């Protein structure tokens, strides 16, 4: 027994030596690369910062649109004028088939699209965080069960299922939010679990256990505050993906017609002759709005993620 | 153990801990000791001899792969039989522990005051303001002069020694009957260790807290402990009063340990401590023992009591 252990030990030592030598070989090359590309890296970094600012500006603009639509829209969305009118001074983006001003519709649609995105992302992040925290903190059977369940949800094809559900249930915005939220929490759960697994071994969690705090208390006040910085970018990306899903579902006619989101505007433009008559002012603006809104939210999310990486690298350097 | 005048607080009997993996490793075997009220017992020994495992066993902090036999009795209750929920009530309130690395044992996202007040708010349901003011008093007791400022500090702003004292303040907030200090002097410089020592002494005198001190800093142990248990390869090999261990060590290992101190000549013990997955037959110290006989190699010695102290060696029949 001792001999085999000894042999194993020596093998491991060798492996370590090999690894070390590899590292040593890598290091100078890495350094050189760092020196040469430092300037371009700086440039890259500054352009990234610029992107971040643009995305934050865009995002705040859309948020403003969602919160105060009446200050931006020239008319009420239900007001009727002459249908199928081309863009003019009176109607900047023309009118649709029943004579609604498209610009006003667009501005009022922002609130619905963004609400769906936020609410669905909130639900999915909440579920993912709770399940991930429990699985990562308690480990054992609960972890196996929860992660098995997560895997099952992960392999369900989302859009077809949502189409089926949307077709069976009465199309309504709340159903849409629920369905989108309940089917997109797996990646959050996985990330949270891995973080919780890492943090449960941290010294302060151990000492919190030794102070006699309950698992609930430790999870909410010791582990959760330390993973917010991971959850925030996840949340932003979830908003973006929920908005895209909402748009595609609405385009397929599974949205709530009484609450006109951008996706429903697109669907109307498609089914009521906007494409055939080549009325670009009808179908382009909602598409562009969806694209830019999702892009800005995703960029904010990526920016936050990059910040998080920076922090973790700094932390690695210190410890 | 002999019966003593003051009552026993913690009694550990025949503790055996093993970790199950590809092969089962028995980390502790036949550990027995007791701590009386307001007494300090020190566990000393080399790295890897299982000192910290004793502390973790008492606190139920071992990983799920571990198997524990024997008994740990605290105030007459067997701790090993308790479930997690009952243990939560004992932790912090009755037994507190200080870990090795003080900077890692504090949550980086909260201020010191918040963390000191947390045990009060959770266990005694105190209001935030009242708890914070008690935290300030606790910091004052830990000889922080600017305690009202310290309350708003974050762990990353403070030195290791400061964090260690914050941690002691947090652990003793609820007046536990027993404080386990797992290598509290590790990674601290001389001045911090001296400060730590005065704080622990104060704790002993003022609050009558019992202390289980785990350390390999022999000088530190000598100044604090009433009794010392010397551990080697998962066993207690000598258990005696602090003064008698330092003045007249019985076991060859204890002698070697004392001789390796800088002030006693810096003489190292030859060889290495054995791996715990394959401890040597007979006396576990025999491969390194200068006084070994033939039967030391074959027969495992038992812990024997001679006039108030216990030793695990054939030299003392």
The CATH architecture of chain A can be given as Orthogonal Bundle
Percentage of β-strand residues of chain A: under 5%
Beginning-to-end CA distance, first to last residue of chain B: 17 Å
Count of extended strands of chain B: 12
List the strand order in the largest sheet of chain B: 6-7-8-3-9-10-12-11
Poorly predicted ranges of chain A: 1-36
Poorly predicted ranges of chain B (pLDDT <50, ≥5 residues)?
1-5
Look up the CATH topology of chain B: Rossmann fold
The secondary structure category of chain B is alpha/beta
Average pLDDT, all residues of chain B:
86
Percent in helix of chain B: 25-40%
The count of strands of chain A amounts to 0
Query: Strand count, sense and closure of the main sheet of chain B?
Result: 8 strands, mixed
Order of helices and strands of chain B: EEEHEEHEHHHHEHEHEEHHHEE
What proportion of the residues of chain B form beta strands (DSSP E)?
15-25%
The major beta sheet of chain A can be summarized as: none
Count the helices of chain B. How many? 11
Structure write-up:
The complex is a heterodimer of chains A (319) and B (317). Chain A has 13 helices and no strands. Chain A is mostly helical and 319 residues long. The longest helix of chain B is centred in the middle third of the chain and has 18 residues, at 190-207. Chain B has a single domain, classed as P-loop containing nucleotide triphosphate hydrolases (Rossmann fold, 3-Layer(aba) Sandwich). Helix content of chain B is 32%, strand content 24%. In chain B, strand 4 (66-74) and strand 5 (77-78) form a beta hairpin. In chain B, helix 3 crosses helix 4 and helix 4 (128-141) packs across helix 6 (160-171). Chain B is an alpha/beta fold and 317 residues long. Chain B has helices spanning 51-58, 84-90, 112-123, 128-141, 147-150, 160-171, 190-207, 218-224, 242-247, 252-259, 294-298, and strands at residues 8-19, 25-36, 40-45, 66-74, 77-78, 95-98, 178-182, 210-215, 227-232, 235-241, 304-306, 309-311. Chain B is globular. Chains A and B meet through helix 9 and helix 10 of A and helix 2, helix 3 and helix 6 of B.
